[in-house]
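Researcher: I've been going back and forth with a colleague about how Circadian clock protein KaiB might be arranged in three dimensions. Neither of us has a model we trust, so I'd like an independent prediction. The organism is Hymenobacter jeollabukensis, in case that matters for your notes. Sequence below.
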Amino acid sequence: MEPEQAPDSAGPEYVLHLFITGATPNSTQAVRNLQDICERYLPGRCELQIVDIYQQPELARAERIVAAPTLIKKQPGLVRFLVGDLSDRRRVLSLLGLVPDPNDPYLHD
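Model: Here is an independent structure prediction for Circadian clock protein KaiB. You can compare it with whatever you and your colleague have in mind.
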């Protein structure tokens, strides 16, 4: 996999918000999956904010969240949304605009 571009020293290249519903199995799995992806593909290039909609419902309303878990990619590029536990790694990488090596064993679980 090749990086999209060099990281900007002014801040993180990727800004992600993950909206969850407490410690439910889907929310826990989404957090784990996204943290794994960020560590593997975006080390030092990702700002991840995890928002529990039970604790901060005003943020969920402001973003018009209707289902959880929901991932919002704020930067780079267009804002994009993905709902679910983020177990489809290829889909998450596509949302992030990353093209993984097709032989990457991480994608063949």
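Researcher: What would you highlight for our discussion?
Model: I'd start with this: The longest strand covers residues 14-20. After that, consider the following. Residues 1-8 have pLDDT under 50 and may be disordered.
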